[in-house]
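We close this part of the discussion by returning to an individual protein. The sequence in question and its structure tokens are set out directly beneath this paragraph:
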Amino acid sequence: GVSEPKTVTITVTGTNDAPVVVADTQTTGENSALSGQVPAATDVDGTIAGYDLATDVGTGNGSLSFNSDGSYNFTPGTDFDTLAAGESRDVTFSYTATDNDGGVSAPKTVTITVTGTNDAPVAVADTRTTGENSVLSGQVPAATDVDGTIAGYDLATDIGTGNGSLTFNADGSYTLTPGIDFDSLAAGESRDVTFSYTATDNDGGVSEPKTVTITVTGTNDVPVAQAATTTTEENAVLSGQVLAASDVDGTL
């Protein structure tokens, strides 16, 4: 014989299911701060209470600020200046989500690809000295470029009229010829002349102009006498005066 059927009741008691977060990718330029938001986490049996940073971007990878609502700000700073134009490097951080029952998700990674832009080279100011009668051959200080090489140098502003003559070459070498423009300087007296130049890198980036200051020091210029002719009778006494001599940087 068979009994009447009876019911077995099974009570299933829920446990909190942890939320689920999602990985993400972002891009930015080496000089551009990135403001982002992690993807919204999901929770099958609750709500999302907030987000926490699990691992930071690490040293030498800019700086990151992370907020409990999942928003973040990434600043590359100078850590990516060595990237050439178009070159890129990835940085990562991971985060978790917490639900309304305290459940914490497994961490997921946000990958930020930082792409380099060309950094302009850096030129350097300089000072030189020469005498009023001495030709100066010089070389501008070597420019630097954090993400490239120096292709050449260009004259930005010349020394100007009345300051001798300057020749400037693409390799940064130059020649200053004072000429007669400094003859009026007394011995030990000096006057500065300046020119500025720029450096260009292999990607066409141009530095800010920098100034080369040349101090020209005077030397004593000898006076200049003048020849003259005069006539007299053979038995006459001649009284005369030589023509006045001149001195460009002094007195007689």
